[in-house]
Amino acid sequence: MTTAGLILLDHGVALLGVACWFATGVTAALRRHRLAGGLLVAAVLATVARVGTVAALAGQGWWFVQEKVLLGLPLLGAAGLAAVLIAGPPLRAARQTPGAVVALLTAGYAALAGPVVTFTAGYPLRWSTALIAVSLVGAGALLTARVLTVPAAAPVGAGSPGLSRRGVLRLAGGVVTAGAGLTGVGLLFRDPRPVETGGGPGPAAAGSRATVSVADLRGPRAPAPGGAVRRHTLTARAATVTLASGTAVKAWTYDGKLPGPAITARQGDLIEVTLRNADVEDGVTLHWHGYDVPCGEDGAPGATQHAVAPGGEFVYRFRADQLGTYWYHTHRASHPGVRRGLYGTLVVTPRAAAGEPGLDLTVPVHTFDNAVVIGDREGRTVHIARPGAAVRLRLINTDSAPHRFTLAGATYRLVAVDGRDLNRPGEIRQTGLRLPAGGRYDVVLTMPDTPVTLNLDAGDGTGLLLRPAGHTGPDPARPDTSRWPELDLLHYGEPAPWPFDVRAADRHFTLVLDRALAMVDGGPAYAQTVVGRGHPSVPDQLVAEGDLVRCTVVNRSLETHPWHLHGHPVLLVSRDGRRGSGSPVWVDTFDVRPGEVWEVAFRAGNPGIWMNHCHNLPHQEQGMMLRLVYDGVRTPFADPDHTH
Ligand code: C2O
Ligand code: CU
Fold first, then answer.
1. Which protein residue has the closest C-alpha to ligand 1 atom 1?
2. Which of ligand 1's atoms lies nearest the C-alpha of 290?
3. CA 331 from chain center: how many Å?
4. How far apart are CA 241 and CA 208, in angstroms?
5. For the chain (length 644 residues), average pLDDT per consecutive 10?
6. Which bound ligand lies closest to the C-alpha atom of 616?
7. Ligand number nearest to the C-alpha of 334
């Protein structure tokens, strides 16, 4: 069973246990002794089964079970055992005692505490969580006892002044419960550690090394020798745009266009883009997704610049040294900014084009409300290609969810992922390509003399039709590609040596992704969390220039998290502990599906302060973001409440 399946199964068994324990308590209270006895057996069995599911899940990694093993199960075990001992004998004798009902309901509270902790706090288990959970279960037990049993205080005039023995016990229980609860709540307000060092040295003492401001980490002002300057001015503004297919979209745009103007360059050119903001109230920036620009050009508000407010301007300059397919988008209020249209494509081609020109299409996919748009139109777009011509399709996913592409009618090769070439990618056919949010695939094929279709997702007809020049036959119907297998990038292409030995990493960070109650941008939220916290309270990752960094990304949740680090491509090392057997794969965005554990590695060779986040932009907005900070780099742009 997959880890995600085990997570679901464990949730199910946990909830079954909760239901059984409460049902036992309630039926016992109603004096349905036989039924209660049967339910007690079921509750015990569900609890034992729970031990099994947690043990199975533990085999996938401690991150998946920590709070269950350290808190949920012990609490339930203790309360369940007490319930069996206290309620078992009277139930067998078909008697009811208030103590039995209290014990059974307390086991119910303890059973409930487990999943509540899992869903509201998750990993890592903190003392505050444990103390609050124990105290709530204790409070539940005491209140139940108070409601169901004789008052603790001795009746007036009964001769013994003060409290009975039971009263003393309850008072002590109340004090312990309240003390634990208050301590737990107090601990909630401890500040999280502001940096994580990943096992490497901490920050160099202030004054012992020069520091640099991100404001000074700017790009060159001239192209490489022989290169051109590609100058653009992009003005962000609200506009109603009529797509080529006729649909009108109320959008936020760069230059009134959807997508924004395509930016292209030859390798070595200088790209210079002046961003202006006409009327996007939240402010805008330009982030060059996947392009390893100097940090000051990265467009991350609150880290590398202030967002450009209406009337403002910012000039970005960087050299187009990196070949391939990229995109740009605002990084200020990315959600909803990108969804509403603040994005465009960036493609860098070699200085000398190899061979004769074929068809080179940039294919950004975006969803506006319910209109799925390729480039600037819905539905199927037709292109003509000469049989035998080389065709390159640059697929770009600008949405927050993955897209599945299928290419029917030709064999093809996936030659580049996130702009970086694969090593000796083989021919494939009848295979689906799942493209993560924010990711890019470059697909290459030789045009046959029959039509070829590129189909999106479920195959509602959205896609491309490549028609051979001179072809007069009917266009092909939509092929049913739903059963095609999905290409596994870890096993595609041929291996090649890696530029470093990942076992010799200088730092190792672990990011555990989940949902929990946490502070996000200064307010409480049911957040998308990284190690239990929401942005900006997730500790920074500290690195020093030149470090080899390993990162383990664990998805404890039931949603996919397309993980994206700015400024550095990462090498995919392994998934669920298994290394790939194919080409090295360098990406800037990789999908971490439910229950998956990915390992990636990168060289810290681009000093700055870099955002590291989930590219499902609603998740990013709900807290799933942190920073990778180079030692000695500071930012004058901090604006802790508004950094996406
Ligand atoms: Cu494409 Cu931080 O994002
Ligand atoms: Cu996410």
1. 289
2. 1
3. 16
4. 55
5. 95 97 95 94 97 96 97 97 95 89 96 96 93 95 86 49 75 89 85 84 76 94 95 97 89 95 97 97 96 98 96 98 97 91 97 79 93 90 94 97 96 98 97 98 96 90 91 83 95 97 96 95 93 93 97 97 98 96 97 98 98 96 96 86 49
6. 2
7. 1
